[in-house]
Amino acid sequence: MNVDEIRRLPTTPIGAPAYPSGRYRFTGREYLNILYRTDAEAMRAVVPEPLSVADPLVRFEVMRMPDVTGLGSFTESGQVLQVEHDGEPADYLHAMYVDSLASIASGREISAFPKKSGTPRLYVDSDTLVGTLDYGTLRVATATMGYKHAPMSEEEARAEIGRPTYALKMLPGYDRRPRILELARSQITDITVHGAWHGPARLQLFEHALAPLADLPVRDIVSASHILTDLTLGRARCVFDYLTD
Fold first, then answer.
1. Which of 1, 30, 64, 168 has its CA 20 to 30 A from that of 122?
2. Which of these, 59, 63, 73, lies nearest to 24 by C-alpha position?
């Protein structure tokens, strides 16, 4: 294998890459989003500069993704923190738990998504939309929402899932010192909303040393949404280099 052939590889292992190259299109993506207010100091302690926190709002999300080009079918859950960057409202991806190696590897290597292994589920239980997250054999989050209680406008749904997102890209060198340490920005594009609803919701977070969602405790529920959509992940780009800026 020559140098040019190596440069064209999406990732390792050779002959059976962990994920393919190319942009990823999501068809039939389903969201359960619960927006809640947490402790301001707890949130500021985990939001990196140059991002800033005003109202300490967190979105707990569970996303069922049954049809993703190149990546297949998987489910994801995590916490997204509402922040500002240069006066622009945005989201900071704090933690993401996924049941797919291809999604974890591509999210961490290509972009800056803070993904690790977990077992999320999204399903309907009678008249209730339920989202759960297990880490190993232990439950760390349970979210419930009334199923399709009130319509949500397409514009509101687009605004909720289409906000600019920021995340930390961290890659150590062979000496264990940071080789890449950047704040990356990305944004979802080509959004088609197939349906969106509001409803009453509750969220329970359980203490865990390695899945510490409860470190951002639920003080009050602000809103909840259930969104069905198709979308494309936009490419990430560096907006702040912690090693040079």
1. 168
2. 73
Q: What helix, strand, coil percent values describe the chain, rounded to 5? A: 10, 55, 35
Q: What is the CATH number of domain 22-241?
A: 2.40.400.10
* Residue of 115, 116, 148, 169 marked active site: 115
> What is the reported pLDDT for 40?
98
The b-or-e profile of 74-99 (16+ CB within 10 A means b, else e) is bbbbbbbbbbebeeeebbbbbbbbbb
- Tell me the residue type at 124: V
Q: Is 169 a catalytic residue?
A: no
Find the length of the chain. 245
Coil, strand, or helix at residue 29?
strand
CA–CA gap between residue 197 and residue 162 (Å, rounded): 16
What digits encode the pLDDT tens for the residues 42-57? 999 999 999 999 999 9
| Overall pTM > 0.90 | yes
